[in-house]
Fold this sequence. Notes:
With 233 residues, this protein is α/β, with parallel strands linked by helices. It has helices at residues 10-14, 27-30, 33-36, 39-44, 46-61, 67-74, 91-95, 158-167, 217-232, and strands at residues 3-8, 80-85, 100-102, 105-112, 123-124, 144-148, 170-174, 196-199, 211-213. The strands form 2 sheets. Strands 3-2-1-7-8-9 form a 6-stranded parallel sheet, with helices on both faces. Helix 6 (67-74) runs parallel beside helix 9. The chain is globular, with a radius of gyration of 18 Å. The termini are close together. The mean pLDDT is 97. The chain binds adenosine-5-diphosphoribose (APR). Adenosine-5-diphosphoribose (APR) binds at residues 9-12, 14-15, 20-23, 26, 86, 104, 175-177, 179-180, 199-202, 204, 216-217.
Amino acid sequence: MKKLVVLTGAGISAESGISTFRDAGGLWEQYPVEDVATPEGWYRNPALVTQFYNERRKQLLAVNPNYGHIALKELEEYFDVTIITQNVDNLHERAGSKRIVHLHGELMKVCSSKEPNNEHYIQTLSSNNLEVKIGDMAKDGSQLRPFIVWFGEAVPKIEEAVNYCEQADIFIIIGTSMNVYPAAGLIHYVPRNVPIFLIDPNQVLVPSTVKVIQKGASEGMKELKKLLIEEYV
Length: 233
Ligand code: APR
């Protein structure tokens, strides 16, 4: 089976009803990034940050995967699929995709605020217990914080993602503005002869060799799935 590696961003979840970050009306317009998505914001006001992510979890419970997510799951019948996602939602999981690398963390997980990446202190919240409160502690006695990679923090999963990109036979990018590094740099690890497709209704700055499908995730994936099966299986 050919190795299909997919880089997804907020745009793939837009049709499920989750706001993107940088489009008009996006999340970073409503909430200042530096307040809710940086370590400094957390130190200044952990209650505000905790509340912000509690709200994001509530919203996540209310939405469902769309055909963009589902088509990626369906492609596992024909390809060895790896999804590298910048999204912290669990819509790829809920669509049934098997191999998912979450570069920027996971909304449904919480961790130690002393050692965010220490596996021993990472907990998965359940759908009937998704509210974190100030005073809720990780097993090391520190305040629980969202298991999210904030701006200015290292991206521990990037090496694993680079390895997958280097092995790709086909590479797909869906719904990311390619503004945030190191994720946006992953395209440079894809071997030169490998076909690269991009699905986004808006223009994204990518090399001219990339085959662009200027459509939303669901419609774009419907078209691309057909093409991939016809031409690459
Ligand atoms: N289908 C596909 N793409 C869409 C759709 C849609 N229906 N609607 C919007 N988009 C595209 C936008 O055109 C844009 O290019 O999705 C992209 C969203 O870009 P951003 O909001 O910048 O989101 P993303 O690239 O995922 O952000 C990267 O930045 O804020 C941080 O950590 C956060 O993971 C996030 C990272």
